[in-house]
Write a structure and sequence with these properties.
It holds the Pfam family ATG16. Residues 7-191 form the Autophagy-related protein domain. Residues 36-66 are annotated as: Disordered. This is Autophagy-related protein 16 domain-containing protein. By secondary structure, this protein is mainly α. 86% of the residues lie in helices and 3% in strands. It has helices at 4-21, 23-42, 65-196, and strands at residues 51-53, 56-58. Strands 1-2 form a two-stranded antiparallel sheet. The radius of gyration is 58 Å and the shape is rod-shaped. It starts with a helix and ends with a helix.
């Protein structure tokens, strides 16, 4: 995300560039105004006044030269004006291109900003889903551990029950054997007693 200072400095740079873009146009009009004022000074009928041009003094021209001088000045002024207009059209073209590029970049920046916002929202959503999934996995792992503990406890109880059953069966067999032996002895004793009677 662009920091506000960078946006501010970028806006200042664009402003400076647009203000300095027409500097040649301003200079051309300034030269034109200077020549016009010099022309007005040269053609005044106030008498022989010297005209200072570029630090040098010029003598008053003869009466047939002012017309030619005015024509030259007019031609030079028209040339300066056409040069200023050409410069203005070039600068206007550059300004139009820069404005179009700026519009494209601003549009692209807005699209990128929307895409960044969408991606940040998706990232937040995915982080929440991942956290929920981690909690679910931890819960299932705990449930599995509890189930394995319960299964181990039941296996232990089953083994103990089988051992007890086995022991009780052995005791029962021993009791039955002893009882059968006792009953057998009693039966033999009764048989023996019945023989003598």
């Amino acid at each position: 995300m662009v920091h506000w200072r960078e946006e501010y400095f970028a806006a200042l740079a664009v402003r400076d560039e647009s203000e300095k873009a027409n500097i040649s146009l301003y200079d051309a009009y300034t030269r034109l105004a200077d020549r016009t004022s010099r022309t007005a000074t040269t053609t005044t009928p106030s008498g022989p006044q010297p005209d200072v041009v570029a630090g040098e003094k010029k003598q008053r021209k003869p009466s047939n030269e002012p017309a030619a001088s005015i024509t030259d000045i007019l031609t030079a002024t028209r040339a300066d004006l056409s040069e200023a207009q050409r410069s203005r059209s070039e600068l206007q073209g550059r300004l139009d291109r820069v404005t179009a590029d700026l519009g494209k970049l601003q549009k692209r920046s807005a699209q990128d900003q929307r895409r960044i916002s969408a991606l940040e929202s998706e990232r937040t959503n995915l982080r929440l889903r991942l956290r929920d999934r981690d909690e679910e996995l931890r819960g299932k792992a705990k449930l599995l551990d509890d189930f394995q503990d319960e299964l181990a406890t039941l296996n232990l109880q089953l083994n103990m029950a089988e051992d007890r059953t086995s022991r009780l069966q052995q005791e029962n067999k021993e009791l039955v054997d002893r009882w059968m032996a006792r009953v057998g002895k009693e039966a033999e004793a009764m048989n023996d007693a019945s023989k003598f009677s």
